[in-house]
Amino acid sequence: MLVVLTAVTVALSMRIVGALLVGALMVIPVVAAMQIAKSFKATIWYAIAIGLASVISGLFAAYYLDIPAGGAVVLASLALLGISMVKK
User: Fold this and answer.
1) Residue 22's domain spans which residues?
2) What is the pLDDT of residues 51-76, one digit of tens each?
3) Among candidates 32, 34, 33, 12, which has minimal Cα distance to 22?
4) Fewer Cβ in 10 A, N or C end of the chain?
């Protein structure tokens, strides 16, 4: 059931926001969370927080810098991944 729900979410999201943003928001926050978390449960919560922070900061950056929102969100997510890798 979880696989079907994930597939439907990805398919609908790709049509709305694009494949780059969906792929980035499904992979990069989890990789960043895996760098700092000690357990699976902590990884999930860190990934949610990192994903949310990257979306919010990316949208603010897109608005104030007048750049595309999808790219700004991906760059914010990559920046948080870089920070998590440096802290490790």
Assistant:
1) 2-87
2) 999 989 999 999 999 998 888 988 99
3) 12
4) N
Token pair for 81: 């991944």
**Total of domains in the chain:** 1
Asked if 62 and 68 touch (Cβ cutoff 8 Å), the reply is: yes
Contact 22, 13 (CB under 8 A): yes
Question: In this structure, what DSSP letter does residue 39 have?
Answer: S
| Strand runs labelled E in 7-73 | none
For residue 22, give both structure tokens: 């969906």
Going from the C-alpha of 6 to that of each of 1, 3, 85, the distances in angstroms are 9, 5, 27
pLDDT in tens, 14-28: 676 677 777 788 899
